[in-house]
Amino acid sequence: MKALEVKNLVKDYKEVRAVKGISFEIGEGEIFALVGPNGAGKSTTLKIIATILNPTSGEVIIEGKNIFGNADKIRELISYLPEEAGAYKNLSGRDYLKFMAAIYTDDKFKQKEYLKFAEEISGLKDWLKKKIKTYSKGMTRKLLLARTVMSRPKLAILDEPTSGLDVINAFEIRNIIKKLASEGMSVLLSSHNMLEIEYLSHRLALINKGEIKAIGTPQELKEQNQAQNLEEVFVKIAL
Amino acid sequence: MKKFLVLLKKEIKELITLQTILPMIVVLIMFSLIGNIISKETAKFAASQPILILNQDTVRVGDKISEILKASNFKPEVLTGIDVAEVLDKARKNRISSVLVTTSNFENDVNNFKPHSIVIHKIAENFSISSDVKYSSLDRAVSIISTYYSNEWISKKKTGIDPEILKNPMKANEFVVIGDKTASVPLSAVSGYIRKQTTFIPIILFLVIILASQMVAMAVAGEKENKTFEILLSSPINRKTIVFAKLIAAGLVALLLAGVYMIGMNSYINGITGGITGGTASAGDGLMSIFSSLGIIITPLGYLLLGASLFMGILVGLAIAMILGVLSENIKSVQATITPLMIMVLLPYLIVMLLDVNTISPILKYIIYIIPFSHPFLASQNIILGNYLPIVYGIIYQFIVFMVFVVIATKIFSSDKIITLKLNFSKKKKI
To answer: Out of A11, B16, B166, B171, which residue is the most buried by the measure of CB atoms under 10 Å away?
Structure first.
């Protein structure tokens, strides 16, 4: 079964068509990246798959379930990390993770399991006792990534997961994503960082002006476009 | 239900911060302190007021006036053989604000039925409300002296007749009729009692609705501003649960805040009214039985209905504020976004407090009835008079309005309007 199938997805904002009938699919344990310039429609696509925005037309099927009419069930299978996400500043990191664990499951045993896993993933240790308002951007991002994967969702939707992070934090987060994917979690991510895409993704789609221009593995795209790296591929296709 | 409680707990934790608790404690302490001070000060004025009498006439006059004023709870001190400047100096040194001068010929004029002027000096040190009470005591003293001599003149001319009868040959035996009940009691006593019972109800209501609305609108706008909303909306939690958790959390915290404010304000206002009115509005046991016979004692059913009307008013305010919170891009813009709601609460508050709704123009009356926040204000008057049916109709109407707005709020939360709807109050940047 495919983790995600997107078919002819269209999204209009009043007069503007932000997404123009894109289609792609993600297999289990696959890391799939959406790559494109600002305003290409990446975040809108991610938000539709995350059940936050309603599409104008098209289909989104997650683990065999169409998101139309099944949004509540779909939300149990997915976990979304927005690009500029924040956490509740007056809660401690641990309280935030506890709160989110309780949102994902009523089972106390599972909640403890989620919390333990998230604490481990975040690597924040004693900082988890402190209020989130005292955290740096990198620490908050790590906490949010831990929150995203704590329930081991079938599909993790990560919008610019390492945006604004220093090299070390970004490196740690990429390794976490890679490790979890190797354990069976499917990942849909968007990024501007071509090195990150090349390092992480099994396949990617180049998206521009709401349309998918090319799709394939990093190697396939480089060969098709006779490019040395993904950045060159991106420039050739975007222009 | 479990997820609702988890979310409710989180919402309350987010709302109760040092920034909300600290002003609450400060307000409570400040109001209680001011109330206490005013209460003590006004009690001081209610006690025997000192008054200096400079007697420039016979010894008998000084003794007589002193005797008259002592009988009326004044503390007079008669001075002779010194001039006015010296008396004023003594008054200033002893912080006495009232000086009365009985000029020569006082006794002669009084004995010959001639009007006589006495000189009064009010030593003004400040112009606060409580000082007015202090300064007016001298006017009262003059009035008491004047009444005494008026009665004496009448007695001398018309021996055997009570001067009071001559001055007031007609006396009204006042009855107050409320509904089908009648009692012999001054209307002022009834209205004073009712005002005392109902003064706080509209203030509580006004405060709670405004506070709760701000809370819930800020809770929604805060999620947007802090970029936490998208994570919450993509989590496996029903949108209705999010709506209700935010509504209830804001309602509970606002009730707590309003309760604290009201305790402080109660102490403050009791300090003012208790002292200045000398407790005239408070009813003794006799009056209480009269009020009971008039049916103006609030029954448990009355309190229950008033509470229900108040609660529904809060819920309507919360549901509307929640929608307005969605329109706010950030916490700063919440104040501007919820202004229409504040006006909707303020309008019936002022009209019901200042006017008789039954006598205002029909259009204004219908506008008042349409505004859901009018009903608790109206209920606060109706419970006193035992008119329960209009309160019940008001509660039903409020419930309908609440459900309409909750449905709208849930629809917005279930659609992508929750992300895309916004009003922008910020100025456009010039290039």
So the answer is: A11
Cβ-Cβ contacts under 8 Å for B159 (sequence gap 6 or more): none
Report DSSP state, residue B282.
S
| List of chain B residues whose C-beta atoms are within 8 Å of the C-beta of residue A114 | none
What CATH architecture is A4-238? 3-Layer(aba) Sandwich (3.40)
What is the distance between the alpha carbons of residues B335 and A116, in angstroms, rounded to a whole number? Answer: 41
Tokens at A68, concatenated? 């139309």
Rounded distance between C-alpha atoms, residue B277 and residue A34, angstroms: 76
Furthest-apart CA atoms within chain B: distance in Å: 98
The domain segmentation of chain B, as residue ranges, is: 2-39+186-420, 48-167
Alpha-carbon distance values, B303 to A189, B352, B382 (Å): 58, 19, 11
Distance CA B108, CA B62 (A): 14
Cα gap B276→A110, rounded to integer Å: 65
Task: For residue B62, count other CB atoms closer than 10 A to its CB.
Answer: 20
Binary contact (A52, B234; C-beta < 8 A): yes
Distance of CA B79 to the CA centre of its chain: 44
Inter-residue long-range contacts of A218-224, CB under 8 Å, 24+ positions, other chains counted: none
Tell me what pLDDT residue B423 has.
Answer: 64
Q: Which helix (H) or strand (E) holds A16?
A: strand A16-26
Burial class (CB within 10 angstroms; exposed 0-12, middle 13-18, buried 19+) of B154: middle
- B263 vs B265: CA distance, rounded Å: 6
Count of CB atoms situated within 10 Å of the CB of A213:
17
Q: Which residues of B touch A87 (CB under 8 A)?
A: 226, 228
Asked if residue B319 lies in contact with residue B247, where contact means CB atoms within 8 angstroms, the answer is yes
pTM over 0.80: no
For residue A100, the chain B residue with the least C-alpha distance is: B235
* Residues on chain A touching B415 (C-beta within 8 angstroms): 54
Higher pLDDT, A134 or A172: A134
Domain B48-167 indexed as CATH 3.40.1710.10: yes
Q: What ipTM is given for this predicted complex?
A: 0.92
DSSP codes joined into one string, B197-244? HHSHHHHHHHHHHHHHHHHHHHHHHHHHHTT-HHHHHTSSS-HHHHHH
